């Protein structure tokens, strides 16, 4: 299976016109994947002081503006939207983009925005229970003519989701690094799994845990696609990765994400990406957060033909 190369966009601290210009540019440059994230406030949290666009509406524009790249959200928080509503949104976006949409789901972590917007934000175990219930429910809504479900957190009654997605099987991803629950949910229900901002060594460990979960539920591990999101901390003028990450507003999370960053010059990324590929990644997405250097981004994109030769 070929390695894909994408861009994960944090839709904050940018006007919509700039975002639209960015993803058109990325699509024209031949990236395989473009995704956004699901937040109401900036991430990491700063009290809701940074401009930030909602994910579903943003994806509608992204779907209409692009022609080639696969599209998604890494990942939707299942506590924010009824799963049936999210299935309906996924189907609609899939039609807008001509069958290129993939649905990412996760348990969520941004307690501050949830409380500000009046959402319940239960303990992690409960949020994972919600995720575990939501994923197969959404799958049923996307594939079955009618779905009735009466669970602990969600209900549907003879619900249809018409029209069906353009894709015979719209891919569902589970995102996260929790070894006991998140990776098991991915093994049981997902078409793909994504981890963010981890070192190659940790990524390799996580892929091994995912393999173990797949075998325990009787699934071939090769049937689940694996990708990683990496901080875009490249420079052409010697600016340190730490300085770039600080400029991007990571704040107290800077040390947490530093191990999962591509650093140095754009021409130095091949060896760094190779380490993730050797650790099991089948797709590598750079995470763009304003501000970034456009010249550095262009030089990174020029490396895509070389990166695609990695195996």
Can you describe this structure in just a few lines?
The chain has 311 residues and is α/β, with parallel strands linked by helices. It has helices at 16-29, 55-65, 83-96, 111-116, 124-143, 182-189, 200-216, 241-247, 254-257, 269-278, 294-301, 304-307; strands at residues 4-9, 33-36, 70-73, 76-77, 101-106, 147-150, 155-159, 172-175, 192-196, 225-234, 261-264, 283-288.
Descriptive account of the structure:
The longest helix has 20 residues, at 124-143. The protein has an eight-stranded parallel barrel, surrounded by eight helices. A two-stranded antiparallel sheet has the order 6-7. It has one domain (4-307): TIM Barrel. Helix 3 (83-96) packs across helix 5 and helix 6 (182-189) crosses helix 7. It is 40% helix and 19% strand. It has twelve helices and twelve strands. It has helices at residues 16-29, 55-65, 83-96, 111-116, 124-143, 182-189, 200-216, 241-247, 254-257, 269-278, 294-301, 304-307; strands at residues 4-9, 33-36, 70-73, 76-77, 101-106, 147-150, 155-159, 172-175, 192-196, 225-234, 261-264, 283-288. With 311 residues, it is of the alpha/beta class. Strand 9, helix 7 and strand 10 (225-234) form a beta-alpha-beta unit. The model has no long low-confidence stretch (mean pLDDT 96). The radius of gyration is 19 Å and the shape is globular.
């Amino acid at each position: 299976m070929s390695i894909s190369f994408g861009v994960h966009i944090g839709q904050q601290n940018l006007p919509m016109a700039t975002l639209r210009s960015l993803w058109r540019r990325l699509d024209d440059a031949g990236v395989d994947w473009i995704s956004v994230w699901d937040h109401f406030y900036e991430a990491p949290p700063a009290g809701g002081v940074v401009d930030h666009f909602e994910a579903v509406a943003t994806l509608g524009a992204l779907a209409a503006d692009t022609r080639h790249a696969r599209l998604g959200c890494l990942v939707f928080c299942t506590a924010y939207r009824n799963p049936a509503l999210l299935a309906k949104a996924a189907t609609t976006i899939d039609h807008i983009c001509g069958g290129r949409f993939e649905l990412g789901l996760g348990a969520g972590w941004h307690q501050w925005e949830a409380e500000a917007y009046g959402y319940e934000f239960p303990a992690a175990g409960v949020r994972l229970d919600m995720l575990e219930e939501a994923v197969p429910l959404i799958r049923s809504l996307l594939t079955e003519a009618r779905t009735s479900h009466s669970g602990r957190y969600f209900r549907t009654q003879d619900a249809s989701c018409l029209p069906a997605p353009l894709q015979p099987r719209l891919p569902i991803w589970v995102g996260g690094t929790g070894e006991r629950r998140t990776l098991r949910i991915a093994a049981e229900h997902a078409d793909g799994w994504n981890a963010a901002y981890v070192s190659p060594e940790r990524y390799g460990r996580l892929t091994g845990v995912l393999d173990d979960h797949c075998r325990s539920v009787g699934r071939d591990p090769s049937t689940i696609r694996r990708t990683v999101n990496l901080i875009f901390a490249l420079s052409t003028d010697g600016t340190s990765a730490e300085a770039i990450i600080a400029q991007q507003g990571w704040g107290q999370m800077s040390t947490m994400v530093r191990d999962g960053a591509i650093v140095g010059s754009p021409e130095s990324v091949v060896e760094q990406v190779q380490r993730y590929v050797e650790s099991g990644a089948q797709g590598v997405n750079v995470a763009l957060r304003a501000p970034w250097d456009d010249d550095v981004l262009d030089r990174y994109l020029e490396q895509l033909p070389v990166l695609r030769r990695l195996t």
